[in-house]
Design goal:
This protein is 33% helix and 23% strand. The chain is of the alpha+beta class and 177 residues long. Strands 4-6-1-7-5-8 form a 6-stranded mixed beta sheet. Strands 2-3 form a two-stranded antiparallel sheet.
Length: 177
């Protein structure tokens, strides 16, 4: 509902989307080879592209168990996995028709791969946020009054997380501003 908080949970890299564009940028435009060590990445290009996808299942279950108890109002309202389509296509799937989500750019640590792709890829910013997760692999929509507690809990579970947006009046859309 309007006023709910949107928490971004860190990705470990590309996860399962954006490899075609990332390969085009890294190998064709920037002329890297898989074994090239890139100081900005603190890694080789190949190792960066092969990073294992974060498994969010245990965290999701733990959040639901802690914040959504029988007989009490749910405090965790929704989750959206940020896959192909980025924020704009995935978050609306969990929104009521009269609510939008506003995601605030710069409210999370983007991570070196996404910084490199954004700074040197020559790709329109809107496309970056449509194709890549930009460092946020999952979002949780939580009651505003529980945002701090949820963030603290997520971090206690060894996940990086940030308050990245909010639910506002709208038409069932998500936008990155």
């Amino acid at each position: 509902k309007r006023g709910d908080a949107v928490i971004g949970i860190a990705s470990s890299g590309l996860h399962t989307n954006g490899y075609s564009l990332a390969r085009k940028i890294l190998f064709e435009q920037l002329k890297f080879q898989p074994g090239d060590f890139v100081p900005d990445l603190h890694n080789t290009v190949g190792e960066e592209l092969l990073k294992v996808h974060v498994t969010y299942g245990p965290l999701v279950q733990a959040l639901l168990k802690k914040f959504n108890r029988a007989g009490k109002p749910d405090r965790v309202k929704a989750f959206a996995h940020i896959t192909g389509g980025g924020f704009v296509d995935n978050i609306p799937r969990v929104l009521p028709a009269k609510c939008d989500v506003v995601i605030r750019k710069g409210s999370w640590d983007m991570g070196p791969l996404f910084q490199l792709l954004a700074e040197r890829g020559g790709v329109d910013e809107a496309e970056l946020y449509q194709v890549f997760n930009m460092g946020v692999g999952m979002v949780a929509v939580v009651a505003a009054e529980q945002a701090d507690a949820a963030l603290k809990f997520i971090r206690s579970q060894k996940h990086k997380a940030w308050l990245i947006g909010e639910v506002v009046k709208g038409m069932g859309e998500a936008r990155v501003e």
